[in-house]
Structures are given as C-alpha cells and as structure tokens.
Write a structure and sequence with these properties.
3 helices, alpha+beta, elongated, 5-stranded mixed β-sheet, 17% helix, 5-stranded antiparallel β-sheet
C-alpha cells in the first residue's frame, strides 16, 4: 500500500485520500502561525512501477496561485539529484501530477528543498572564512536563529535577504552562490566588491 510522509525537515502536505494510486488527493498545509501557503515537500513509499496521479486540491487557493501556471513538480530519488516531472498540470483550482516512479521511494517538492541542516552547515563555513563575520540578528517564532553574514569593509551598505516565506528555497540556493563568490579571496570582482561595500546577507529571514 502506498504511504505518504512529510514528518521531516521542510516536509509539508496533508493527505486526504491515498487509497487509489490513480486518484491520490492532497492539500498544502499553511505555514506556521500564518495564512500563507504555497510550498509542498513529501515522500512517497512503495511506489516503484505504480502509475500515479496526485491531485493537490487547494493549489488554486495558494498565496501565489499564478506560480503554478506552466509549473513542473520537482522530484528526487536520493534528495541530491532533482528533476522535473513534465506531466504536471494546473487548471486554476488543482495541481495534478502524473508519473510512474522507477524506485520504491521518491520525494516530491515545490522546488528543490534547502534544508535547515544545509543552512547550518553553510553558516558554519561562512563563520570559518576570514572574509566573513556571522552573527544572530533575531529568532523566528519557533526560536530558530536568524543568521546574518557580513562581508566587506566599504562605505556602501548593501542588504540582501532571502526566504521571507520559508518555502522560497530557490532564493537560498542563490544566496549560497552569491556568498561563496563574495568570500572567495582569489576572485578579483569579489575583492573589489568587498573594498567598496559592506554586505549584510541574510540567507533565510524566516527559518
């Protein structure tokens, strides 16, 4: 029997009915202490070779329903390599995902997840860099640290923050690349940016 789980870092889905592989009914759960909802991330078990049809019934009520226009769901068998599912359709009310998994377990997500563990590992790398300073500028409603990475000693302050909504994982992938370049001691553009600016970078403003 197919099972669906989301009790893990950044997991999010409500299962209405998963008895029929051709008519799995789901809903996106609201963010913590918020009316906002957009992102989903869940795991399917015992699905190798099953022709699946998953319907996210409240996609049309999401905070940015237009984001589902032309959208293709992200999927992974190992949580490292992600690919898109081309047979994803949005009709203005529901998001329907059809595919046949090649393995027993598969993860589906709105975008490729950026986990809290990866965030903490990245912040630790920044703290170890001679080009950066890390401090805490506050906490989330759940008590999680909100980290700031400060780079450069120039006179021009530059603030960049990402993930005002926690499901905007694509923004933190961008921030990781941006910060990695800014702290690269061999990059001449980064050296000039550090000379001219003082960067205040918050990779996840809402952890």
């Amino acid at each position: 029997m197919i099972q669906i789980s989301s009790q893990f870092d950044s997991g999010n889905i409500e299962v209405i009915d998963a008895r029929d592989p051709q008519n799995i009914r789901l809903r996106i759960r609201r963010d913590s202490q918020s009316d906002f909802f957009q992102w989903f991330h869940f795991r399917l078990h015992d699905v190798r070779g099953e022709a699946l049809c998953l319907v996210i019934e409240n996609a049309g009520e999401a905070s940015y329903a237009g984001g589902f226009e032309g959208y293709h769901c992200a999927a992974s068998y190992d949580r490292e390599t992600w690919f898109r599912l081309p047979d994803t359709a949005y009709d203005g009310r529901s998001l329907t995902i059809r595919f046949t998994p090649e393995r027993d377990t598969v993860w589906l997500a709105y975008f490729e997840p950026y986990s809290q563990e990866r965030h903490l590992d990245f912040i630790a790398r920044c703290a170890a860099s001679s080009q950066a300073r890390v401090d805490r500028i506050g906490t989330s409603l759940q008590g999680r640290d909100i980290d700031r990475v400060r780079i450069g000693e120039g006179s021009h302050p530059v603030w960049i923050q990402a993930r005002q909504q926690p499901g905007e994982t694509m923004a933190e992938w961008f921030m990781e690349g941006l910060i990695e370049r800014l702290i690269d001691p061999a990059d001449p553009i980064a050296r000039e940016a550090r000379r001219l600016g003082c960067f205040h970078l918050v990779a996840n403003i809402n952890p």
